[in-house]
Amino acid sequence: MAKTTGGSFVVKTLEALGVEVVFGIPGVHNLEIYKALLDSPIRHITTRHEQGAAFAADGYSRIKGKPGVAITITGPGLTNAVTALAGAYHDSVPLLLISSQIPRQSLASRSGFLHEVKDSRGLASSVCKESISVMYPEDISSSLIYAWELSQKGRPGPVHVEIPLDLLSEGFFGESEYRSDCRLKVLRPILCPDDENIDEAVSFINEARFCAIIAGGGALSAGSEITKLAEKIAAPVVTTCAGKGVVDERHALSLGARLNFKVVRDYLESLDLLLIAGSELSPTDLYQYPLKPKGKVIRIDLDPGNFARQPLPDIPVMADCKAAITILADRVSARDARVVEEVSSKVKSIKAAARDELLSSGELGEETYDAVQAVNSIRKALPDEGMIFADMTIPAYVAISEFPSYGPRTFLHPVGFGTLGWALPAALGAKAACSQAPIIVLAGDGGFQFTMEELALTIEENLPLVIVIWHNNGFGILKNIEKKRHFRKPYAVNQNLPNFSLLASAYGIRSFRATSAVELEEALGASLSDRASAIIEYRSR
């Protein structure tokens, strides 16, 4: 009987898990997986760098709602992917990274074997929920299934599985052995809230005159439930960046992603009750300053560790946000219509005050007003279902509050780990997940150069993106910070930029230049209507 190699077993297991797309780069150590992919319905997208592969898997996961999968070799392949794994870990994105490993007999030998790493599991586990080494052929399938499940269980995150070269390349299994092993069922039970805690939460909400909801990335699947609850109890909804769009930001009760504004924080801290759903409220969510509410706090979360974070909850509800909020929305008492009207008016005035605060603070430098105008142009040009993948750049920081998201997973930004170069490869992964949705990449000219090699995929894999490059000749936000810290001149932040029009031409991509918000809107309209990739250079000053 012909034997199935470990590499084939990897691919068959991924097929059984329903994986449709994987991102990666072939290397001499993982070619047995690639040989098996030749005959698989799984689509493989070859990125230009392993970091790009893991970023693309991250973007795919954020849109698809299930783990993105990346494949690398060990050694440089794994180390190149680590930054992307760290970003996914920080932002609670489920991701599966499969890497090869040197043969079992050479492990921990320091023999100088090609791609040897002293402690690859230690390296990966520092930025993953877990790192798993497969040491026996019969454990390949069960390890991958376990990793797939673990990445989505509780608080999501990346999981790494490494498989030694000898297991990948040798034949071990007959077809019948494979099938019986791969029929493990994939189950993810929803964690239901404790009745006693829910009873208390209902009582607290009913007793509170004025309350608000803070929604994070863990509440992305509970948008309609949160909207129903907010309308019933007249609660404004403010989100973290990761939760942006959970409630349509055109809604009269939406405060958007404005946790960093003093006027918003003062309001939240003055209320009788805060309900925090699916967020750790990290320093990056709160811009370093923890909330200090005077009222009661209810926290709903799958991660019990978040119940030990400020603000400490009076009632912790360990549950899936959708399950818990569904019950709350059904059981709480509705507020009087006059209260709803009063709160809606208050929300409108707070949003106006927050805009004034943004423009007057000078926090982002002289380009703030121009960035607001650019973000407005992007919103006008982008269809309701369109997405922005925003890198670490001044207009992206502005867009967190000023770009109105009409639904979840339409504004994506690596605010937690803050990785330059994330947006382009992550957007490519998203496009592979959702081919019809128009996607705009918003990047600074400095950060774009971190991963601009992935432009090749927009043509090679037919993944059209519209890329807006914000010109500030290097690292604009750092220039502002250096100025505030009284550097006698800008240091290590100015760059001689490539000709982005020629770069676009080299990849067969259309290019535009815009010097005003009106020109930007026109270029975006032309690019989006073409449904083809384009680079738009935007220089406002």
From TrEMBL:
Residue ranges of domain Thiamine pyrophosphate enzyme central in the record: 198-326
GO cellular component: acetolactate synthase complex
UniProt keyword terms in alphabetical order: Thiamine pyrophosphate
BP term (GO), one: isoleucine biosynthetic process
Thiamine pyrophosphate enzyme N-terminal TPP-binding domain location: 5-116
InterPro entries assigned: DHS-like_NAD/FAD-binding_dom, THDP-binding, Thiamin_PyroP_enz_cen_dom, Thiamin_PyroP_enz_TPP-bd_dom, TPP_enz, TPP_enzyme_TPP-bd
Molecular functions per Gene Ontology: acetolactate synthase activity; flavin adenine dinucleotide binding; magnesium ion binding; thiamine pyrophosphate binding
Family matches, as SUPFAM superfamilies: DHS-like NAD/FAD-binding domain (SSF52467), Thiamin diphosphate-binding fold (THDP-binding) (SSF52518)
Pfam families named among the record's database cross-references: TPP_enzyme_C, TPP_enzyme_M, TPP_enzyme_N
Domain Thiamine pyrophosphate enzyme TPP-binding: 403-537
Family (UniProt): Belongs to the TPP enzyme family.
Protein name: Thiamine pyrophosphate enzyme, TPP binding domain protein
